[in-house]
Amino acid sequence: MGRDGLARVTAALIAGAALLAMIPPLAGGIERHGGILAAAWALGRFFTILTNLAIGIAFAVIAWRGRNAVAPIVQGGLMLAIVLVGLVFNLLLPPLDHASFIDALGDNAHHVMIPLAVPLWWLAFAPHGQLGWRAPLAWALYPLAYSGYVLVRAHLEPVGTPLRYPYFFMDVERLGWATALGNMAAIALGFVLAGWLAVWIDRRLAPRG
């Protein structure tokens, strides 16, 4: 099996893991909220879910059409976003309680396995040498857009809605606007700085000659 074939097979495994791990939280959401649409709406508040869904789709495309089928700037941005998922969950958030082994497996797939597998895949198989130094500024739009989405969504939902603010550092009601917005800005800045490191690594891994 050649390098492109190995890239496609491993991309298929990553896509399968990211998408199949959606089943336990979706099933639990259907039980709690009484329907698939309500469950999907509830899950759609989480950066983890949105990022893993995007990775599942992008890596499915790579598995189907090859590692050049998804633009390098998209591959780099998704890699950085899922690393952020892993870091925030494992360093800042308390452990989750799980109703079953399947729930724990899905949770660990989204928060541990995929955040480890994607950067390793990116290092080994991404088409390197095509990222510019402005790429991290574009990548930072994702967490900023997500922050805006959370704030608008929280404004539309009744006070007291469970997980109205999905992450404690975004909770305007508890922290106040200044602190919450400062936290979001700090995360976006960290995203840019990490992005510049990723671009530097990408250039070091570029083919010579």
Would you spell out the secondary-structure blueprint of this structure?
Elements: H1 3-20, H2 23-33, H3 36-43, H4 47-65, H5 72-92, H6 101-125, H7 135-139, H8 141-156, H9 172-175, H10 177-204
Helix pairs in contact: 1-4, 1-6, 2-3, 4-5, 5-6, 5-10, 8-10
User: How many strands in all?
Assistant: 0
Sketch the topology as an H/E string, one letter per element. Answer: HHHHHHHHHH
Assembly type: single chain
Distance between the termini: 25 Å
Q: How many domains in all?
A: 1
Shape: globular
Task: Outline the structure in words.
74% of the residues lie in helices and 0% in strands. With 209 residues, it is mainly α. It has one domain. It is globular. The protein is built from ten helices and no strands.
Which terms would index this structure?
209 residues, mainly alpha, 74% helix, 0% strand, globular
Compact summary:
By secondary structure, this protein is mainly alpha-helical.
